């Protein structure tokens, strides 16, 4: 089973490396969305410092949505997905491998570039540290939950818009505690609670979401 | 005597049963609705703090209750359809969704109208308002997903899975929003501790709630009959049961 998981993971990573533009586009989308907000609300440094964590988190949500559409679409159109369904290995494990690849390609780059964007918003070193940790804990949840939606909307008309309609409301808890952690940390309320809750979301999603994704893939492909 | 509970899980035997139930549910809905609104608007005493504007609560509170309860019922039907592969269960879920969304919208709308004279603003990011808004999004997602799938079997099962995912998430979302609210702003408005209610107010609330229940049942059954007609249009029993089709 682990061999199968590894080969799915390596295959997805290799495919993405052959088409780097897709990966970069998500990252650049993230950077552009975050950079647009100061034009909308004005360059007031104090205001931007308050808005920063929330803006970065919302942009991360949108960037995750953008890349989720491609999670299964390629495999669905060229028939690979049907072969994955036929393999003796548990589909949930293979789905998890694909989600992991998705996070490595679209989640992790966002986490790495977020401190730079945070500096643009004048966040302090402590705030940046909290922001990176929450993103590190939260973005895998976005990939895991999003995979269920991506599998459900496979091959449907208006799949992308529909996907965001299904998945974005489910992201609310992650957004609340991800963006809220920075505020809580800076106001001295302690962030351990936020970390714990985000980690709990991650563990819960890690256990449940692959099964739901596998079930959704079976529904969509049959 | 063993009762065959699954007899009415067949669309052919449920269709006429639903037809017989609709007038009764409608009658109960109209009678309790008129009675409840009469008690609420004319009999119940004026609130000493909020004046007359509190009376919108007689629509708002039952609608909010129905919006949450309908989601649970809808999800249970959808999951039952997923587990036992019964078409009728999935159709019930599909039929309940628009009514649930409507009640969610009514609860938000009447809440805004009540908030303006009472709180001085149409909208606050209160935990209850926010989670009700997210509930509306969940309903819309369910309806939109089913609407965009042409194959009815896939639509039923995809909707079932989505409702199940939603059901797991609803408590998480609710508590997150609650904590978020207490973290971000002090309790500017507390209506958790309501003053003790006059008996007439309680009576009106319960009557209108009953009316909304009966309305939901009637409308869901009507919609389920349409669903049955559409999905069973190939089968012969329809032409024997429904007159004037051929």
Your description of this structure?
The complex is a heterodimer of chains A (222) and B (246). Chain A is mainly alpha-helical. Chain A has one domain. Chain A contains ten helices and no strands. In chain A, α1 crosses α6 (91-120). Helices cover 76% and strands 0% of the residues of chain B. Chain B is globular, with a radius of gyration of 21 Å. With 246 residues, chain B is an all-alpha fold. Residues 185-190 of chain B have low confidence and may be disordered. The relative contact order of chain B is 0.18. Chain B has one domain (21-43, 56-187, 196-241). Chain B has seven helices and no strands. The interface between A and B is medium-sized, with 28 and 27 residues.
Greatest interface and its residue counts?
Answer: A-B, 28 and 27 residues
Per DSSP E runs of 2 or more residues, the count of β-strands of chain A stands at 0
Order of helices and strands of chain A: HHHHHHHHHH
Q: Which segments of chain A are poorly predicted (pLDDT under 50) over 5 or more consecutive residues? A: none
| Succession of helices and strands of chain B | HHHHHHH
Largest sheet of chain B: none
> What characteristic shape of chain A results from the CA principal axes?
globular
Q: Structural class given helices, strands, pairing of chain B?
A: mainly alpha
Question: What helical percentage do the residues of chain B reach?
Answer: over 70%
Element layout with pairings:
The complex is a heterodimer of chains A (222) and B (246).
Chain A: H1 2-18, H2 20-41, H3 45-68, H4 70-78, H5 80-86, H6 91-120, H7 125-152, H8 159-167, H9 172-186, H10 192-221
Helix pairs in contact in A: 1-6, 2-3, 2-6, 3-6, 3-7, 3-9, 6-7, 6-10, 7-8, 7-9, 7-10, 9-10
Chain B: H1 11-43, H2 57-84, H3 87-119, H4 127-147, H5 152-184, H6 199-231, H7 237-241
Helix pairs in contact in B: 1-6, 2-3, 2-5, 2-6, 3-4, 3-5, 3-6, 4-5
């Amino acid at each position: 089973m682990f061999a199968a998981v590894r080969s799915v993971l390596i295959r997805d990573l290799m495919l993405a490396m052959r088409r780097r533009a897709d990966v970069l586009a998500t990252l650049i989308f993230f950077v552009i969305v975050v950079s647009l907000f100061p034009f909308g609300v004005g360059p007031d440094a104090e205001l931007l410092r308050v808005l920063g964590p929330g803006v970065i988190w919302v942009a991360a949500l949108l960037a995750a949505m953008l890349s989720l559409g491609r999670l299964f679409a390629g495999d669905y159109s060229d028939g690979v997905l049907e072969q994955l369904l036929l393999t003796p290995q548990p589909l949930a494990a293979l789905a998890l491998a694909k989600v992991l690849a998705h996070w490595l390609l679209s989640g992790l780059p966002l986490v790495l570039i977020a401190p730079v964007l945070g500096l643009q918003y004048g966040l302090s070193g402590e705030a940046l540290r909290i922001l990176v940790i929450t993103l590190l804990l939260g973005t895998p949840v976005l990939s895991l939950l999003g995979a269920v939606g991506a599998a459900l909307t496979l091959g449907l008309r208006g799949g992308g818009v529909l996907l965001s309609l299904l998945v974005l409301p489910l992201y609310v808890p992650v957004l609340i505690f991800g963006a809220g952690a920075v505020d809580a940390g800076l106001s001295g309320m302690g962030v351990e609670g936020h970390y714990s809750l985000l980690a709990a979301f991650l563990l819960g999603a890690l256990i449940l979401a692959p099964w739901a994704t596998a079930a959704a893939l079976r529904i969509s492909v049959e | 005597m063993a009762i065959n509970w699954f007899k009415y899980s067949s669309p052919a035997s449920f269709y006429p049963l639903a037809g017989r139930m609709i007038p009764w549910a409608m009658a109960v809905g109209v009678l309790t609705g008129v009675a409840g609104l009469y008690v609420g608007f004319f009999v119940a005493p004026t609130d000493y703090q909020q004046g007359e504007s509190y009376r919108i609560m007689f629509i708002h509170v039952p609608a909010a209750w129905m919006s949450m309860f309908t989601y649970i019922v809808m999800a249970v039907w959808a999951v039952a359809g997923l587990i036992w592969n019964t078409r009728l269960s999935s159709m019930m879920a599909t039929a309940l969704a628009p009514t649930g969304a409507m009640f969610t919208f009514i609860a938000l709308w009447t809440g805004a109208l009540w908030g303006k004279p009472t709180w001085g603003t149409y909208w606050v990011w209160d935990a209850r308002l926010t989670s009700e808004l997210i509930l509306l999004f969940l309903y819309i997602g369910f309806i939109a997903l089913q609407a965009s799938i042409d194959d009815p079997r896939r639509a039923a099962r995809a909707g079932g899975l989505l409702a199940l995912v939603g059901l797991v998430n609803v408590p998480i979302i609710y508590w997150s929003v609650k904590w978020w609210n207490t973290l971000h702003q002090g309790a500017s408005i507390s209506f958790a501790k309501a003053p003790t209610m006059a008996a007439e107010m309680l009576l009106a609330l319960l009557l209108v709630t009953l009316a909304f229940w009966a309305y939901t049942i009637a409308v869901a059954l009507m919609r389920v009959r349409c669903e049955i007609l559409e999905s069973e249009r190939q089968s012969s029993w329809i032409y024997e049961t429904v007159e004037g089709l051929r």
